[in-house]
Amino acid sequence: MKQVLLLVPVLAAVLVGLPGCAPAASGPVTPAAPVMPVPPLPQTVRLDQDDDGSVVNLNVGDTLEITLPGNPSTGYAWQPEIDPWPTLGSLGDPEFQAQGTGLGAGGLITLVYQASQPGQVELTLLYQRPSSPPDPEAQEFDVTVVVQ
User: Fold this and answer.
1) Which parts of the chain register pLDDT below 70?
2) Nearest alpha carbon to residue 143 among 70, 67, 62, 43
3) pLDDT at site 83
4) Are 60 and 147 in contact (CB under 8 A)?
5) Is the dihedral of CA 57, 61, 67, 72 positive or negative?
6) Which of helix, strand or coil describes residue 34?
7) Do the strands 95-98 and 107-115 form a parallel or antiparallel pair, or are they unpaired?
8) For residue 77, how many other CB atoms are within 10 A of its CB?
9) DSSP string spanning the chain?
10) For the chain, how long is the longest CA-to-CA vector?
11) What is the pLDDT, as a whole number, of residue 5?
12) Cβ within 8 Å of residue 53, ≥6 positions away
């Protein structure tokens, strides 16, 4: 038992001294690469009719979802007055979610865009029949989108 107790301090001294036995680096030491800032993760910003006239700030890669009341069975649709490309790119056709069970029931239409490049766009959506001439009385939804 005494022999084991005598070996404990010797073993501890050996273990403490081992890191100093590592070979020294040969040649010049290369500094670590500079730390690059990590871009923010893409986020989804959701707007509805209460956000009409607002300003929205997005980062490139963010998604903008705009949900407005509508009824595609009437032939009306929400469509941009001017294509917001290249600042915003459309992510497909608008989606419709009925809010009633009856045939031809109205509901909510969601348009989805992705921030494609930095810039500012005045996004005006008009609720009108796509095949008809522009209607000055068409319902509008306006939002200013700033992409950084």
Assistant:
1) 1-27
2) 67
3) 94
4) yes
5) positive
6) coil
7) antiparallel
8) 19
9) -HHHHHHHHHHHHHHHHGGGGSPPPPSPPPPPPPPPPPPPPP-EEEEEGGGTTEEEEE-TT-EEEEEEEE-GGGT-EEEESS--TTTEEE-SS-EEEESSSSTT--EEEEEEEEE-SSEEEEEEEEEE-TTSPP-TT-EEEEEEEEE-
10) 103
11) 47
12) 142, 143
The tokens 């038992």 sit on which residue?
A: 1
Structure tokens at 50: 């209460």
Locate 24 and state its tokens: 């020294």
For 80, the token pair is 């941009």
CA Rg, the chain, in Å?
Answer: 31
- What is the DSSP secondary structure assignment for residue 106, as one 8-state letter? -
74 φ/ψ angles, rounded to the nearest 5 degrees: -85, -5
User: What amino acid occupies position 133?
Assistant: P
Measure CA 135 to chain center: 33
The angle at the Cα of 97, spanning 96 to 101, to the nearest 5 degrees, equals: 125
Distance CA 138, CA 124 (A): 11
pLDDT of 4 reads 47
